[in-house]
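Researcher: Structure prediction, please.
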Amino acid sequence: MKSILKYNYLFLLTLFFSFSACEDDLNIEPNTALSEFDFLNNPENAINLVNGVYNKQLDYNMYSFSWIGITSITSDDADKGSTTTDTGTDKHKMDNLTFDATDISFNDVWEGRYAGIYRANNALFYLEQLTIEANLKNRLIGEVKFLRALYYFDLVRCFGGVPLVTSKIDINDTETINQVVFNRKSKEETYTVIETDLLDAIERLPLKSQYSPNDLGRATKGAAQALLAKAYLYQTKWQLAYEMSGNVINSGQYFLLADYAKVWREAGENGSESIYEVQASLTNGLRDYTNVQGPRGTPDLGWGFNTPSLNLVNSYPAGDLRRAGTVMFVPSTLWDGFLAPISWNNPRYNYKAYQSQIAESWNGDKGNTAKNLRILKYSDILLIRAESAFQLGFSGEAKDRLNELRTRAGLPLYTNVDLSSVLNERRWEMAMEHDRWFDLVRTGQAQSKMALDGKTFITGKHEFFPIPSDQIVASGGRLIQNPGY
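Model: Predicted structure follows.
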């Protein structure tokens, strides 16, 4: 069922820094009859304040072209695609690992996340002072802290330690802006903020089953636990990752869908496998996610970027159903009956990003899609549990968790597993879902795997992307660049 969670927001708070990041952010409209707090003490208005923090996820600089470029096109899962002459501004540089700090993709990702963090900080400033019903207040605070942690998780994976802005900022307070907004903290300090927010959110948020149908799609206790398990995994905190992923598994809230191919279709939205999705609708669409990756040519269904690589296609074991659920081959007959013609420019496209104009919600606007974006899934949690279990010496449980995925994939079950088994299953299960680059970096495989794909990963440099040069300029040189750029 498509959530009817509305992302319209009433409150736009003024720009607080020149990160170039915060156009159209939450700004309280003047009201001569009511104070800001009187207005927000209406529960519906408080909810709409939080909806504004969710709403940021639909914007172009969140999960669209730039995010796709730096998380997928960089990796061995995907090629730039499209046409030889269409570079996508800097996507050819992402594909070849020749990117630098001036590339727009990095600035988009930076600005988008900090705009979301700014909305979160302002929402928390008001929420914490409201006198609305306690359970609702706690839940809303938990939702916002989950979202802030998610935005910081994206930033720390991309850039390492970043400025930690965790409170409402006065735009006229130059000293605070210089000391906080333009002051990078360490990777470890950034993860501490993420963990703190998520631990608090876990205590405040309800289970998925405790939400009403009208609130389907909001952050849940399971979502906060899942993101925290993933944050622990990235820090090699194996015991904590094992325990937290176990909390999600043992909650009884989530189950694998029977058909892998349906997970990313409209029919799978907010289903049993979904832990957290960006909610999109015909009236509040996700900007240019499917459009960027849609087949290009005749008929033209998109821009044709981020095409699955031969490296990925050839990596699947024989009979793996996940291959057909991930890679759209040209020519072929698609799941909705549409014929993928040889007049399309590329031999393969990302099937998970395909939105059917025949069998799914469609309003003719390719730029804004009604298709939800999967952020956290139950299969990811099984993989986190398997990897952490293996690292802790529980190879039997690692095998059992992987076999749950192998069963759905139509593959023979493992009798024994090693680390290669765990990481291969992660690749096949999560292919084209924006984790592959980060997985290669965090597991130390990036240099060797990129070399097999004809790319040069420079150790000591490419573990992190460059801090955008526009942000360094805006900071007056206070932001320190990552090594090698």
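Model: The radius of gyration is 22 Å.
Researcher: Thanks, that helps.
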